[in-house]
Design goal:
Layout (H helix, E strand, L loop, with lengths): L1 E12 L2 E12 L3 E5 L6 H8 L7 E6 L2 E2 L7 H5 L2 E4 L11 H6 L14 H14 L14 H13 L5 E4 L8 H16 L4 E5 L3 H7 L2 E5 L5 E5 H4 L2 H8 L1 E10 L2 E11 L7
Parallel strand pairs: 3-8, 3-9, 6-7, 7-8
Antiparallel strand pairs: 1-2, 1-4, 4-5, 9-10, 11-12
Helix pairs in contact: 4-5
Length: 270
């Protein structure tokens, strides 16, 4: 899959763009992180990608063709793409397995019932996300980490090429954060999915994402290889803070942390 945003823009109010001239090209086998300060437009970008909001101008292309998930032909999009919402905002009075089977909706008719093929796809997705062992538990009785993995399994049950995730690790403990990030890497690099996720953690982008879209101000954004985008200078411009980079070696891997050290002085540019 080749996904493109071509000069994409979005405004809630005319003349006041939230997103402006956003362009990027992403491919299967890549993990993309989206970073920026609160209210800058990260979630709005995902909602536009998914067709929940209409681009003001420009738009989304898949394999060189315009894609509109909200159009009459949107079913074709949803057979290729899946969405993982934030777990903390969800409440499901159903079992884990029933929840995951909802991910097969693009393949079932309005009143269709899951068949053997759908159940097999759901079981494969639950195994991949590590929730097969709790398939019979009620979603209201499992932990936040288990619910997040259930939502990921639901998305994977549709067997997508594109996976869009809204802050998948937010609110989780260290262990569950590592599980989510590890799964993102596996899905992109071993399963050849294109994974796009919002995050508040630069360290998670540096650890997991091949490429990053970093929002600056006035609807502008930078995109490119994560190490090249998440520099001290760019983080300073994006968040208005001074950043210190710290590195540590662990089992042959360099771990990187970007630590906010202080506010940028008033009147400084960039």
């Amino acid at each position: 899959m080749k996904l493109e945003l071509r000069n994409a823009a979005f405004s809630y109010e005319k003349g006041k763009p939230l997103l402006e001239n956003i362009s990027l090209t992403a491919y299967s086998g890549e993990a993309w992180a989206i970073l920026g300060k609160n209210g800058i437009g990260k979630t709005t970008l995902l909602r536009c990608l998914l067709g929940f909001r209409r681009w003001t101008s420009g738009g989304l292309y898949l394999d060189g063709k315009p894609a509109d998930p909200a159009s009459a032909g949107g079913r074709r999009f949803w057979r290729r793409a899946a969405y993982v919402p934030q777990a903390g905002r969800q409440a499901f009075p159903c079992t884990v397995e029933e929840n995951v089977l909802l991910g097969r909706g693009a393949y079932l008719g309005l009143f269709g019932q899951p068949g053997r093929r759908d159940i097999e796809a759901a079981e494969k997705a639950m195994a991949m996300a590590g929730v097969l062992g709790i398939r019979g538990k009620n979603c209201g009785e499992i932990s936040g980490g288990q619910l997040q993995m259930t939502l990921i399994a639901r998305a994977l049950a549709s067997e997508p090429e594109l996976l869009i995730m809204d802050e998948p690790e937010t609110g989780l403990d260290f262990r569950n954060q590592l599980m989510v990030l590890g799964l993102i890497r596996k899905l992109a690099h071993e399963r050849n999915l294109l994974v796009i996720f919002n995050t508040h953690y630069p360290e998670h982008a540096l650890d997991t994402a091949d490429r990053t879209l970093l929002f600056l101000e006035n609807g502008r954004a930078l995109s490119g290889p994560t190490e090249e985008v998440l520099t001290g200078e760019n983080m300073r411009a994006a968040f208005g803070v001074e950043v210190v980079r710290a590195e540590a070696e662990y089992r042959g891997k360099t771990l990187v942390s970007l630590i906010p050290a202080g506010f940028r002085e008033e009147g400084e540019n960039g």
